[in-house]
Amino acid sequence: MKYLQLEIAEPLLIWYQRNKRDLPWRSNPTCYKTVVSEFMLQQTRVETVLPYFKNWLTKFPSFKILAESDENEVMKAWEGLGYYSRARNLRKLAIKINNLETIPKTQKEWLVLPGIGPYTSAAISSICFNEKDAVVDGNVVRVLTRIKNIETEFKDGSQAVKILTPLANELLCEKYPGDYNQAIMELGATVCHKQKPLCILCPVQKQCESFKNQSVDQKPKIKPKKIVKKEVNRVISLKKDRILLHKNPTEYKRLANVYEIPTLEQTGLKNIETMPFLLKNKRSISNERITEFFYYYKEEKDVSSQENLHWVQKHDLGRITLSGPHKKWIFSLIESCESCI
Question: Which is catalytic among the residues 38, 109, 186, 292?
Answer without folding.
Answer: 38
